[in-house]
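Below is our example:
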Amino acid sequence: MSFDLKGKKIFVSGHRGMVGSATVRRLEQEEGVEILTASRAEMDLTRQDEVEKWMAANKPDVVFVTAAKVGGILANDTYPAQFIYENLMIEANLIHSAYKNDVEKLVYLGSSCIYPKMAPQPIPEDALLTGPLEPTNEWYAIAKIAGIKLCQAYRKEYGCDYISGMPTNLFGPNDNFDLKNSHVLPAIIRKVYDAKQSGQKSIEIWGTGSAKREFLHVDDCADAMIFLLKNFSGPDHINIGSGEDLSILELTKLIMDVVGYDGEIVHDLSKPDGTPRKLMQVDRLKGLGWEPKYSLRAGVENAYQWFLDNRESIRGL
């Protein structure tokens, strides 16, 4: 199948966030599309009445559900009620309002944390709901799983063309660099930069550093979502990733090299490692013809340069 974007009104929710802003940048490369966005002042996505009013007034043809409350291990473990409530409300309001307003196609963005803590590696799409989740972020994961099921339910009952993409760990422009609630890659960039600037002889990382993670530049994620919008329709979610991983210790050393910092790495063994390994099986996406453009090093260099260029306005600084 092929979905033609020309002449379409496309609503990107969460357009000021990392994924939403990347989606807008990518859509700006498409000819003949009208990009719709809404600030929180214009529409609170957790309020059903506000979402339904905005959707009825603007009548988008396509909706990207990229808005979400996100954070790292500490934030997920500290604010479980906020993470499950806000994400459930956002996705339920957008998906139901899309149905009520005859949206032609919807793309829902999930997360790799939907999979069981001890899922087989690399993680295939059919590992979903086969085992217990990682306890530190199960609230967010349950909300994201509910979003997948909402898309499947509206497809089954009403014939809606709603699809789901599950990205691996994302990073890049407009990331969150607050050490209290950011994800691991931007947190390490921030730590290494601060250490270099202050002349610290060492930096600290959580746990042993042995946990392995996969990372994808957010511009590649946006490209993959638009690729799926154009070329995929079906009830099953699709993994979005690079298909390669590395340990947190290896990632730290890579970032230190990019930043130009040669201090020591100290391990805080009182902190958790999290899931031992989280690598996505991306055979289905690659089989459709999509490949990422950024290598991990090139992506980190891009993210670090954006960090340097935007220090005065970055969230968390």
Observations:
- The chain has a mean pLDDT of 95.
- The radius of gyration is 19 Å.
- The first strand starts at residue 9 and ends at 12.
- Residues 80-100 form the longest helix (21 residues).
